[in-house]
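User: I'm curious whether this sequence folds into something compact or stays loose and floppy. Could you predict its structure so I can see for myself?
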Amino acid sequence: MIVYDLHCDNGHRFEGWFGSSADYERQSEVGLVDCPECGSTNVGKAPMAPSVPAKSNSAPKQNTGAKEAQLSNAPMPPEVRKAFEALAKAQAKALEKSRWVGDKFAEEARSQHYGEADETPIHGKATKEEAKELAAEGIAVAPILFPIAPPDELN
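Assistant: Here's the prediction. I'll summarize afterward.
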C-alpha cells in the first residue's frame, strides 16, 4: 500500500491510497483519480517526504499467521463514488471552521465541556481509549472519516 499527497488544479490537497505506484499511474491515466472537493481529474502528486525504513536493529514484526486483506483495485461503482464524494465534502465543510488541536483533543474537549474554555469546533488526535472515556463522560466525539493532514505537516 502506498499513500500519496495529491493536489488538483483548483488548489485542493488530499491523500490517495493505492496498491502500488503503478496502480496510481493506471488509475490516473483513465481518469479514476479525482479531487474529493471539486471533482477535478486534473490531479498530480504533491511533494512528499521520503519514507524512512525501520532501523536494522529493530525487532522484526511478529507473523500472526493471519492473511492481510486484499483491497480491490476494480473501478468504484458510480453510486459509491458519489457517496464518498458527498461524505468528503461534508467533512471538509465541517472542518472549515474547526480548530486543529493535535494530540490535545481530549484535554480541549473536556475543557470546553466543563465550561473551562469557550465552546468552539475542534478536531485533532485521540486514542481509542481517550475517545471512549470522553463518550462515557457525555462529551460528543466523532471520528474523522477521511484522513487529513495536520496543518504543521502541509507543504
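Summary: The chain has four helices and five strands. The first helix runs from residue 21 to 29.
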